[in-house]
Amino acid sequence: MSKTWRPATQLVHGGSLRSQYGETSEAIYLTQGFVYESAEAAEARFKGESDGYIYARYGSPTNDMFEKRMCALEGAEEARATASGMAAVTAAILCQLKAGDHIVAARALFGSCRWVVETLAPKYGIECTLVDGRYLENWERAIRPSTKVFFLESPTNPTLEVIDIAGVAKLANQIGAKVVVDNVFATPIFQKPLELGAHIVVYSATKHIDGQGRSLGGVILSDREWVNENLQDYYRHTGPAMSPFTAWTLLKGLETLPLRVKQQTENASKIADFLADQPKVAKVIYPGRKDHPQADIVAKQMKGGSTLVAIELKGGKEAAFALQNALQVIKISNNLGDAKSLITHPATTTHKNLSDEARAELGISGGTVRLSAGIEDTDDLIEDFAQALAKVNA
Ligand SMILES: *Cc1c(COP(=O)(O)O)cnc(C)c1O
Question: Fewest CB atoms within 10 Å of the CB: 155, 156, 344, 394?
């Protein structure tokens, strides 16, 4: 594997471990264990004196290819593949903390991520302060002597707020804390948190990386030292490992990731511009539009817009439901990053467990819908919105 290949090439060839049969497409190694040539070889493997696999919970060839390909894309030294995005988030956070430690997290988080830091971590004596992550002074003010981890998503779900990753990383470095970035919404194509100073990147590979609605997966990426000292034992002994079949699906997903994200982003940006001019639409939030509240940070840290659009309808929940029900090409689903365009109403689905106050803080109203643009023809999607909006009572 060449370090100098550009991303699109890495995503097709990076990390390939071709067997003696010379297969074109990566092989799926569905095996739990591995056979050793001798008792001495087994001993050496277990002592770490010889390279090779031991048990699929620790690592296996198809997973290894996926992890290496992700490392090449992300510019990371090490990766660990997990069974879901939440397994990646939970492992990345818990593996490095103990009772008495403190997390500062942006309050605008994917619902399950928020549950992990707000509800689960405190059960083990790990405290958490949630802040409005858009303002660096809030991160700074929340710091305690025990602060060990900063956790954020950017852009955020569902209202696409943007957080200054380099700014948060600078604060973390001053106190020796680690920054964990959930980079799902930005995709690895448009944002490189490690280059911006973050220490650990996590993905739900379920989203753009698979991108075709087939499998759940996740991945944690960082430098070798952090993985060896924090994640390695946690990962081996708690068992969040990905199935090799999933790793294979995701390798195929990575091959087309840049093409899909490009088309999804083009669709999202054109739909955002179309909707912004519609009288029944109160507001469109899209990183990449000049009227995004943090357009300056978007320009500084993102190489492209987003495959998602947040839309606020003037007619509240009734209008949001009518719009969703009238759409024909675009399907109602809480998933995102898929080849199919999907729309959801966060207040009654993904964010229904938050209090009314917490939802209001995040800018989620009854009229908010979140679109995940797919790879369909742009004009079919715009025509779908046009015919559906015509059926919405303003
Ligand atoms: C979907 C998602 C997750 C969780 O991933 P799963 O694969 O569903 O476990 C975490 N963070 C973000 C931002 C997500 O969109």
Answer: 394
Let me know whether 289 and 319 are in one domain.
Answer: yes
Q: Kindly state whether residues 265 and 216 are assigned to the same domain.
A: no
- Residues 217 and 298 placed together within one structural domain of the fold: no
- Rounded to the nearest whole angstrom, what is the distance from the C-alpha of residue 233 to the centroid of ligand 1? 23
In this structure, the answer to whether residues 148 and 80 fall within a common structural domain is yes
What's residue 320's pLDDT? Answer: 98
Sign of CA dihedral 363, 364, 365, 368: positive
In-domain check, residue 158: yes
pLDDT, tens digit, 9 for 90 and up, residues 148-167: 999 999 999 999 999 999 99
Distance 36 CA to ligand 1 centre (A): 38
Taking the centre of ligand 1 as the mean of its atom positions, its distance from the CA of residue 86, in whole angstroms, is 6
Which residues contact ligand 1 via a Cβ below 6 A?
A: 84-86, 89, 110, 112-113, 153, 157, 182, 184-185, 204, 206-207, 216, 218
The confidence score (pLDDT) of residue 4 equals 81
